[in-house]
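TOKENISE THE FOLD
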Amino acid sequence: MDKFTKIVATIGPATESETSIKELILAGVDVFRFNFKHGTLDWHNKTIQRVNNVAKKLNKSVGTLIDLQGPEIRLIMSQDEIDISLNEEIPFGKEAIKNAGTKGISFTHTQILPYLKDSQKIIIDAGAFEFILNKKGKKHFLLSLSKGELKNKKSVTIPGSNFPAPVLVERDFEGLKLAARHEVDFVALSFVRSAKDIQLVREKMKKYSVYAKIVAKIETKKAIDDLDNIIEEADLVMVARGDLGVEMPLEEVPYYQKIIIKKSIQKNKPVITATQMLQSMEHHPHPTRAEVSDVANATYDLTDAVMLSGETALGEYPVESVRFMSKTVGFNEKKNTVDSRVRFNFELKDYEELLADSAYGLLLQTQKNKLHISGFLVFSETGTMARLVSRYRPQVPIFTFVPSAAVGEALTVNYAVRAFVHKIPAGQREILQNDVREAIENLLSQNLIKKKDSLIVLHGDTITIVTV
């Protein structure tokens, strides 16, 4: 394996073709993200199917992630775009946008107005524009703290607002139907405010027969306030730094990134670090030094995965972006040699966790005695043991043999895990020597290991070392 840190790539108009999808997978993409804030249902339906078809042809385990829209607030303006001057007051509300000949601003959620306080800060287009709400009797105005050309339908963030927005919007239910139809591996929940939001979505998913893992996107101050409970309830966590950096001071985001990643690892929840990682590569063939440092920093934080958004959805250099990200994580993760048990102080609550800890301890002991271990060979019905070994962030691959493609695809975000389908004969209740031999032959045929390599084998309650 060239890298252990996984790459999530957002698919879009720049990469929707079969050729582009193939190139991205070969460049290092492990999971494709479908952003439900954009694109028609028909487009998502066809493109998910195309990704699955390409992955099957390549015999690669590739995950699919539907990122639900959630209760996002967007601009509604009297014109498609308006020029904003510094300290300009612009009429705000439903009445303000009725006359197309004048400047006026409203939101998609007009019922939010009673929840807004006088002097409330309002941020538009991920921080590109800032306004202050001024209430003058029954009329409302937005005082501009920025200048420039403001375009219609841009995103709106209202830090600290207590507006009781729904957890899911109508379009999200269409997304859940699509997730069921294509057996999507992950569903990301936007603007999570508490663990109760995840519980509600999980119940809705059951009704729609969606068995995907839930990704909780941490992008609000309220999510930070309920972080421990959210991580406990979610299946995965995403550090969504874009909106998080609007909801709170930018200088605090790196700190919370490290806190979210650490807590997620401690709870054995895979974590994805996202937003603007190589943004300049949307229009340039090389990233900035700061962007490379950002990706490397996430690697040193021991994130499971890093994510590309506009770079692969709309950018001019999508494949180059993936290659650069792959090279960056591949180099820097090998320099991360801190014992994870010391760094994260894991609590071992059950026998499986104790077994994974023992396997990792065996790896360290062999390395200490100058014995070379080429990887773990894990047999798992559900993928749980692979995830438990993964959280230790070993410096060797975790070759995991599972009973179905669905179980394997659910592991595509886990650090260092590479899954293969291995079906156990009916009536066989445990892994036999023949199963181990077949798995080794599989790895040899793909040049993932070589003769005389040694592997730590885990199955059931057994840990052994096998030399090929």
